[in-house]
């Protein structure tokens, strides 16, 4: 009976199980833990991998002979654009190497769309009666709070293993001209770890949309963040969209925040040459050029596209054991009981845990009272509202391995207690 699904147990069995969980939880609380599995930050050991950056750059001129210490070059230095163009499967003239945050670039793009419209817009988005975005869920919380800040309405579609529910996306985008765009984290998505297949990307690139200026904000923040040797290749969205006659539809973002230093790396935007001109035209109203000294040291630190891949393999050695530990503990403690399902990501920074409907907030609360900080339930949904109250985002990269183990044992205890409480209340 140790592995009989809880829902199939008799009332006395369930009561005995719940009493056992209460004892385990009381013991857990007594330990006075202070652990944190909330944000997807690199661990200090990962940041140390990029220590060489602090000794760079050697010299001050980029490959074109430009003095990086001076103003100019809004689109970023040539060698870094070329390096990331190769990594992102685009042409160098389609890439902008920017400041230290890709999220800021995303916000800037939305501001520009709002105030001026896109290259293919009839009017600025602010002059539309209503603007709606398609949001695959669970997704990245900051994408949603950014849209909320604009007053952009959000409609959700399920994020599956192979990408968003593309039938649902095509239906929404096809029938409603207020639907102006969608978010997508195409590789090792936050938080599901999903990888958008070439087929789904092709469908998104080619689908008919009621709005002529529909945008796919393709946030490839985890493009190179493999957890196994089986490295997923991101779908080639710019080529697919160009081939389908919608060259200006995708705007791609990438970042070295989780490659070198978080918040002190380089953000990238990639899109059609017209979109790049549109973006830098607006960017130039607020900047005379990016931090090219930081760009130069990044270019020297990596040396080549292969240098970036090799660097990411070092990250994998640091964080893959933490993900393995999450998987081990969830399997040992929860599998077969019918209480939870979870993702087994092959890259990225997160594990997405789905507990019994109506118990996620309770699990997070129990964990908090026992000294384990988890991302608030619902955080991966627009307005923080998970309609089924079942999803919890786990971020195991930052704490040391022993703390990941302790925190996950505690999470398992909280899941079992919350589930037995719920089942007893409904039987
Ligand atoms: N996009 C996604 C999907 C993220 O998870 C994050 C956070 N690491 C970012 C963007 C933020 O990137 P940046 O540091 O370049 O602003």
Task: Quickly list its features.
alpha/beta, Aspartate Aminotransferase, domain 1, 3-stranded antiparallel β-sheet, binds 4'-deoxy-4'-aminopyridoxal-5'-phosphate, 2 domains, 8-stranded mixed β-sheet, 427 residues, Aspartate Aminotransferase, domain 2
Structure, briefly:
This protein is an alpha/beta fold and 427 residues long. It contains 13 helices and 13 strands.
Could you explain the architecture of this structure?
This protein is an alpha/beta fold and 427 residues long. It folds into 2 domains: 6-46 and 310-426, Aspartate Aminotransferase, domain 1; 57-303, Aspartate Aminotransferase, domain 2, CATH 3.40.640.10. Helices cover 41% and strands 13% of the residues. The chain is built from 13 helices and 13 strands. It has helices at residues 11-30, 44-48, 78-88, 102-116, 141-150, 166-175, 198-206, 237-243, 273-283, 292-302, 305-334, 360-369, 401-426; strands spanning 35-36, 95-97, 132-137, 153-160, 163-164, 179-184, 215-219, 250-255, 267-270, 340-342, 351-355, 372-373, 391-394. Strands 2-9-8-7-6-3-4-5 form an 8-stranded mixed sheet, with helices on both faces. Helix 1 (11-30) runs antiparallel to helix 13 (401-426), helix 7 (198-206) packs across helix 8 (237-243) and helix 12 (360-369) crosses helix 13 (401-426). The longest helix has 30 residues, at 305-334. The radius of gyration is 23 Å and the shape is globular. It starts with 10 loop residues before the first helix and ends with a helix. Bound molecules: 4'-deoxy-4'-aminopyridoxal-5'-phosphate. 4'-deoxy-4'-aminopyridoxal-5'-phosphate binds at residues 40, 101-103, 140, 185, 190, 219, 221, 255, 257-258, 267. 4'-deoxy-4'-aminopyridoxal-5'-phosphate is lined by residues 40, 101-103, 140, 185, 190, 219, 221, 255, 257-258, 267. It comes from Pedococcus badiiscoriae. This is DNA-binding transcriptional MocR family regulator. It holds the Pfam family Asp_aminotransf.
């Amino acid at each position: 009976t140790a592995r009989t699904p809880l829902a199939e147990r008799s009332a006395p069995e369930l009561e005995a199980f719940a009493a056992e969980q209460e004892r385990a939880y009381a013991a857990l609380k007594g330990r006075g833990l202070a652990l944190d599995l909330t944000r997807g930050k690199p661990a200090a050991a990962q940041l140390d991998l990029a220590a060489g950056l602090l000794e760079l750059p050697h010299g001050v001129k980029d490959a074109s002979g430009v003095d990086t210490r001076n103003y100019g070059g809004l689109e970023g230095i040539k060698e870094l654009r070329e390096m990331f163009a190769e990594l992102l499967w685009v042409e160098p003239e389609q890439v902008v190497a920017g400041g230290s945050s890709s999220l800021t670039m995303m916000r800037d793009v939305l501001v520009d769309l709002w105030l001026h419209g896109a290259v293919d817009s009839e009017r600025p988005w602010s002059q539309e009666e209503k603007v709606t975005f398609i949001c695959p869920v669970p997704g990245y919380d900051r994408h949603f709070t950014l849209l909320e800040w604009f007053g952009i309405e959000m409609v959700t579609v399920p994020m599956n293993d192979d990408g968003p529910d593309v039938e649902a996306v095509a239906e929404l985008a096809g029938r409603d001209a207020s639907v102006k765009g969608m978010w997508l984290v195409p590789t090792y998505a936050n938080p599901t770890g999903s990888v958008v297949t070439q087929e789904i990307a092709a469908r998104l690139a080619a689908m008919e949309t009621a709005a002529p200026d529909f945008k796919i904000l393709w946030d490839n923040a985890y493009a190179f963040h493999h957890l196994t040797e089986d490295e997923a290749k991101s779908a080639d969205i710019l080529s697919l969209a160009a081939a389908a006659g919608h060259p200006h539809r995708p705007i791609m973002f990438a970042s070295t925040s989780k490659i070198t230093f978080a918040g002190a790396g380089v953000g990238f935007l990639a899109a059609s040459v017209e979109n790049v001109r549109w973006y830098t035209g607006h960017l130039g109203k607020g900047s005379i050029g990016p931090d090219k000294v930081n760009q130069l040291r990044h270019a020297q630190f990596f040396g080549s596209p292969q240098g970036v891949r090799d660097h990411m393999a070092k990250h994998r050695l640091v964080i893959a054991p933490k993900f393995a530990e999450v998987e081990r503990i969830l399997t040992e403690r929860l599998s077969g009981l019918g209480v939870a399902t979870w993702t087994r990501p092959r890259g990225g920074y997160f594990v997405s845990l789905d507990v019994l409907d109506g118990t996620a907030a309770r699990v997070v609360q129990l964990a908090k009272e026992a000294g384990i900080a988890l991302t608030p339930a619902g955080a991966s949904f627009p307005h923080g509202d998970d309609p089924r109250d079942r999803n919890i985002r786990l971020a195991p990269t930052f704490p040391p391995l022993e703390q990941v183990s302790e925190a996950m044992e505690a999470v398992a205890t909280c899941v079992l207690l919350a589930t037995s409480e719920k089942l007893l209340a409904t039987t």
